[in-house]
What does this fold into?
Amino acid sequence: MYATLAATPGENRPLLPWGLALIVLAVVPLALRNAHPVPVAAVSASATTVYYPLDHPDGAVIVAGAIALYTAVARGYRWQGWLLGLTQFLIVHIWEAVAAGAPRLEYAAGMFAWMLVVLVAGEVARKRVEYNAEQRARREEAEHAREEELRRRGADERVRLAREVHDVIAHNISLINVQAGTALYLMDSEPERAREALSTIKTASKETLQELRSTLGTLRSADERAPRSPTPGVDRIPELVERTRATGADVELRSEGGPRRLGAHTDAATYRIVQESLTNAVRHSGATAVDVRIRYEEAALTIEIEDNGQGAPDGVVPGNGIAGMRERAAALGGELHAAPAKEGGFRVRARLPDNGSEDT
It folds into this structure.
């Protein structure tokens, strides 16, 4: 292909059959250059290189070799393209030197410049293709990461909602069940106590509805989100204790270290852990006495709930309540242990880190 630069202007050379065959051999394979860039470049460049030493007239055949080499480099076959180009340059330059009887540096420089233009253009195209592919891969990776994050958040939110609904329903429904049985039993013999039990049922059912509305309100979209009542915290634990006492259990609440403002998540987790523990004491162990201790430490909170009930075999309590409590503690970087006490009954102990920040 570079031989055109070395041709003598004005020559009118005939096209021989071999020349026509070489033109066909250089041009036709270009149709497959994208699928097989290196073989096509080798065939087309070789045909172009052989074409000129046979002293055929100049023509568009020079373009075929250039396109083939450009495509090979642009498709990522760099060293093959450069090797073919340099080999072609050397062959044509040697042929020109032999034909002229001496090296012709001006033609060599022109041929070399032409080769560089073709191969560098291929490099530029390759870089652009690689850059676009890299950007596309980054966008796909970012999109995949966003989808994974959304799935993870969705899974975490479902677990959180399941835990919240369990905590709300399990405690209050257990309380309602106990008080309903008490009301039925005392309705004829002690109507006043039956009335108290029904009043407790009304209060518990109202609170259940309020907390369910608050929990289910998180399922709303951001534009439809309605105001919800705040999640109960440590300040509501005395109410829990009073409602549990209404079932007939003797519940003692003690606080050590003085109450202080807790982080929102620690505050809510403390309430839910005490709530679930009282529910298990009344519902599963048949406890008649429960001791609740909350100890405030410098950067942590310790919660201990111990009852005198039967406990559960091997410490296994039906349902997901204890698992939910452990998840709450772990989510804050804390820990929770729940097991039968050696002296009888059941003990729950949780330690939650807290720095008093609302973002804890």
